[in-house]
Amino acid sequence: MKVDVSFDAVMNRKNEIMKKALGMDYSIYESGGIAFDYEKMMRDIGFGISYIMKIQRETGVGNTPLLELKNLTELVRKISPKGKGARIFVKDEACNPSGSFKDRRASVSVYIAKKLGYKGVVAATSGNYGAAVASQAAMRNLDCIIVQECYDSRKIGQPEILEKQRKCECLGAEVVQLTVGPELFYTFLRILEETGYFNASLYSTFGIAGVETLGYEIAIQCREMIGHDPDVVVATHAGGGNLTGTARGLIKAGAVNTKVIGVSVDLTGLHMASDKAFNRKSFTTGHTGFGVPYTTDPDHSDVPRSAARALRYMEDYLLVKQGEVFYITEALSQLEGLERGPAGNTSLTAAFALAQQMDEDKIIVIQETEYTGAGKHPLAQLSFAKKNGVEVKFGNPDEEIPGTNIILPEHPSLIKVRHADMDKMRKSYIKNAINRAKVDCVNDKDIEFLALETRTNRKFVESVLDELGIKK
């Protein structure tokens, strides 16, 4: 029988396609309302953290070094009030096989795919995750297809994305290249349906469980190096899996008092799915175009229930400017001898600002670095920005307007802490959850779930429900 492959028909079959492509039935965790059993969904992966580490060691993933950035810390102390200037450490995730922490995520998904007998894996991503899946698939002798949004409608792509495309192909993956637009998810579903391959989603329980080892290792290494847990762990925030997995790993290691802070590059005003804006941003991940929507509506991902739920674990959400991250990327290279890509340097930029406010005996850990390459270098991205009409200059980063200019700080003291409005995002989350469930009344279970999801309490949730006119 001929299968209907029209857009509407494929989208209507998405739950059925996902069930086959993941070997998971998400309906068993649903309550019929807003709430679902998140912890049971995570437990049902069936592996403890020790076993996940064993899976990862089979392909050389994890056990990356924790390095103290002494020269950057010294620079912080030169521009801080007396007694301030926390010590900064970085988890050098570029040492993973494909060059980023995404190997942790991919390792478990690819292992599961092999164990369940799938012949290949598919992932939709324009980031480092594609390279990670390709690398793990090669090691376990599975086919790999990566679906990427590479270009705007003029067929022009950013150096950073094209570098990631090159790396996926280098590692043996077939790369399906798309222009920006709504066809990404449709194409992804069609490939899953036609090939019968495994969905190596960024947002599955397998992916997030893989990142838990990162948080776990940070706690153990800090205890070995400095005798106690870090005070703060800073994570670059996009889809939420990086922060969620790291936080869960810290908790599993017993580091329950460590604060986990998310950071995104502030791209306010640029729309992620806009053809016009696609090439006017100089960061392709770790920015507010991903960070805010995935914080306030995590279930709009490529699985029915995302395992990446950053708002549950995020103590604070900081914003940095594009020019500041380029500046810190250069500082990391020249002061510490570490040439690393831009993603981890987003959180490093926030840590540089945060350290100026914290006492000298406090510890901040940046939980990732990523590999760099010709397309990821700041000069490639800045040259591309100039060609697309974006002004690049030195000045005060507070005056930066995304898509119009990039302002490199005239002095490191101009790199500042800027807080996102967490309560506004919590209210947006509750509103989105109501809309997604299509309900006009909630029960006690829903209220408790929303309090956990927003890291608040019943009083806060009930006040937002009252504002929305939802019955209890």
Key words describing this protein structure:
alpha/beta; four-stranded parallel β-sheet; six-stranded mixed β-sheet; about 475 residues; 18 helices
Oligomer: single chain
- Derived from helix and strand composition plus strand pairing, the structural class reads alpha/beta
Helical amount: 40-55%
Unreliable segments of 5+ consecutive residues: none
Evaluate the radius of gyration.
Answer: 21 Å
Lateral arrangement of strands in the main beta sheet: 1-2-10-7-8-9
Q: What general form does the structure show?
A: globular
Mean pLDDT score = 93
Give the helices and strands as they follow along the chain. Answer: HHHHEHEHEHEHEHEHEHEHEHHEHEEHHH
Count of distinct strands: 12
Continuous helix count: 18
Strand content: 5-15%
Task: Please give the largest β-sheet.
Answer: 6 strands, mixed
Distance between the termini: 48 Å
Question: Can you walk me through this structure?
Answer:
It is a single chain. The chain is of the alpha/beta class and 472 residues long. It is built from 18 helices and twelve strands. It has helices at 7-12, 14-22, 38-43, 49-58, 70-78, 102-115, 128-139, 159-170, 183-195, 205-226, 241-252, 288-296, 322-336, 342-355, 378-387, 422-437, 444-454, 458-468, and strands spanning 66-68, 87-91, 120-124, 143-151, 174-179, 198-199, 232-236, 259-265, 316-320, 363-366, 391-395, 405-409. The chain has a six-stranded mixed β-sheet with strand order 1-2-10-7-8-9, sandwiched between helices. The protein has a four-stranded parallel β-sheet with strand order 5-4-3-6, sandwiched between helices. The chain has a two-stranded parallel ribbon with strand order 11-12. The longest helix has 22 residues, at 205-226. The termini are far apart.
